[in-house]
Amino acid sequence: MDILAKERKVRELESKILELGNDEITSKLRQEIERYKEEAMTHLTAWDRVLLARHQLRPVASEFISYLCDSFMEFHGDRNFRDDKSIIGGIGIINGTVVTIVAQQKGKTLDENLVRNFAMPHPEGYRKALRLMKQAEKFRRPIITLIDTPGAYPGLGAEERGQGEAIARNLLEMSNFTVPVIAVIIGEGGRGGALALGVANTVMMLENAIYSILTPEGYATILWKDATLASKAAEVMKVTSYDLEELGVIDQIIKEPLGGAHFNKMETFKNTKFAIVNELQELKQFTGIQLRDKRMEKYRNYGFFQRFNYDNLKGVKS
Amino acid sequence: MNDLIRAFENRKSSNKQIKIARTKSLVTSAKIDVPVGLYEKCPTCKEPVNTKTTIENNFICKNCGDHFRVRAIDRIKMTTDTGTFVEKGHGYITLNPLFQDGYEEKVAENKRKTGLDEAYVYGYCEINGMPCVIGVMDSYFLMGSMGSVVGEKVTKSFEYAMYKKLPIVIFTASGGARMQEGIFSLMQMAKTSQAVLRHAEMGLLYISVLTHPTTGGVTASFASLGDIILAEPNALIGFAGPRVIEQTINQLLPEGFQRSEFLEDKGFIDLVVHRNELKTTLGKLLMFHRRFQ
User: Fold this and answer.
1) What is the DSSP letter of B146?
2) Could you tell me which chain A residue has the CA closest to the CA of B199?
3) Contact A101, A91 (CB under 8 A)
4) I need a surface site. Which of A16, A146, A168, B289 has the fewest CB within 10 A?
């Protein structure tokens, strides 16, 4: 039974309790449900977390922003082609600090998702993000990116306008910023499309978010020629926050309430804000050049390999 | 930077061993195996072409002018001045960070087949008398995919060029990031991009030559960031693969989509250069960018 089935069961029970209406019994039943939730939803598999990261009710970037910021002003357009709705960006105030926020925005309904293109940005979206981030650099504002995308959009127009170039340029420019950059993966972090906003001093991740080079389905199709093995692929690919923290790819995990972020949105937002405010305070002590060098060094060291040391060969018969 | 200098000083003391390794890697893999028999069928025009003339013609089909895929060794041979290439960055060992089944065997098999350490070779060379660093991806090694070692070697080649204050020329041919290494492959995109940045900050030239096929994570990192971007005719260059796009938009792609001429038309490539003229063009470009002082 996967996490969605468990959730359905909990919801069913809760609606039944509402029908009963008797105080004494309901409080007892509520406790029972809580116990069941605790039992069923604490140890999640990788595939469960993939499902949660894509959950329909999961809070999207704009909800995070409206909680995080006291006042947020959104800006549009890349000054070049058009405004990409799948990326939103602007200036807001978090706990008294003015920051630039760039985020990938999913929709809540199908109609909204069509407008947002399922949070799959076109090149102009990345160029808009870069434009806003460069402004942040100019006016010395910290940058916060919220990542939630299945990947950059693979389509005719996107290729024509240089999807690869747009992402590459973002990667290059983001490593060059001298202001603090914090990336938070709030849902799906898929492929280069996520990394294009993810070159940061601190990469945080919600507990049930995923971050991967490819969707589990795509991985199963490419390597095993069978898309139905996606759940196995999720396990193998190391996509969950705990795996990635172990591998050193992310710096911090933000706790989610039991059963996923959508069970108690406020708690999720509060934890996220707490983590971001703390991190901003932490990064304040560094100068711009230090921040840049630290970020560079961090990404320079990623990789898992060995180098054969020729000096050790001395004296060994070859 | 100090670390870098120290590292290279350490390397000097072990020059002898490196040379041995170099001859090994070059000599054992010097055999040319694109067309096996005397005559080979061209995959584009389906006409039989003479193997020997094809090789003499820089792996271009005599009939239709199609550019075949080229191994790294042959690419170096046809681009650099004879006897000037010195390979650097030896001894990287690909590991299996995510414990994928069969990955080590696959790498070992490809190592045996190609005679290379990994899908990327770099070193010092001269092109028409102009000294530079050359880096070549080999699409015969696991489709030239970028894993930890390829990312590291690309970064190292930029660092070597920075240390020697030389321009760098990179021939890309890759299917994208290496899926078996998962998130580590993804991180190589950021790593190589910032290597380009640091190289550029020293005021040095980076020419990127896109060859068939260049897709995925390589397009979205160092391949698209060259000061000058050249491409071979009719090479497949794009971020998403054609099959993925077809599935997404549910229709067939137009003829010539994602080919180098198309991208030149859209303004993402400086120049499409025929393979026979590539060496002259590179020599000229390097000459143009000689330092004034």
Assistant:
1) B
2) A172
3) yes
4) A16
